[in-house]
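User: C-alpha cells for this one?
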Amino acid sequence: MRLTKRLALVSVVAVVVVSSLLVAFFLATPRYRPRIELNPTPLVDFKLTDQYGREFRLSDVRGKPVFLFFGYTNCPDICPLVLYKMAYAIKQLGPQADRIAFIFITQDPWRDTPDILRAWVARFDERIIMLTGSPEELEPVWKAYSATPLYTDAKGNPIKNPEDYAKRGEPYFVTHLGFVYVADREHVARFVLSAEMPQEEYLEAAKFILSQ
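Assistant:
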C-alpha cells in the first residue's frame, strides 16, 4: 500500500515538473510569426564602403542574422521611419542587438557620402551599418535585391541624370522599396518588414530571427 502511494506521489511530481518545463518552454519561445514570408533565398554577397570609409562585405557578418534596407538620407518619409524602428529594436534588445547586423544601403551615392551617412545615422543608432559606393559598385547590388531605384525631379518627372542634379544642388527624389529584408544567421532571407509595421513588430521580428 505504501509503495503504491509512493509511486502515485512520484507520478504526480513528475507530471508537475514536466508541465512546468513545458510552460517555461512556451513562454520562452517567441510567439511572433512573420506576416510577409519569402521563399528562402540566400543573400547575395557584396563589397561596399561603410560610414567610416572602411571596406565592408556582407560575408564579414556571417553568422549574424541581417536586417537589410535600401534607401537614401534625403528621403522625406520612409527611410527615417524605418531607421527609427530599427533603432527602437536595437535599444530594446540591449546587448542582444550586437548579435544582429542592421544594414542600410544607399540608393543615392552622389549625395550619400560616408560622412553624410555617419552624421545622419547618429540621429538613430550608430550601430546601424551604413553603406555607400560608386554607382558602378551599387548597381549590381540593387539589381540582385530587386531594389533598382527610380529618380524623379521635384515635380515627380523621371530623370536619368541624378548626378548632374546633385552637382548643381538641385533637389531630386528616389522612388524605392519600403521593405526590410530579414535573413537568418546563414544569410538566407526569410521574410520582410514593411515601413508601415509598428516598431514593436520590428522588435519581435528581431527576437524571432535570433531564435532561429
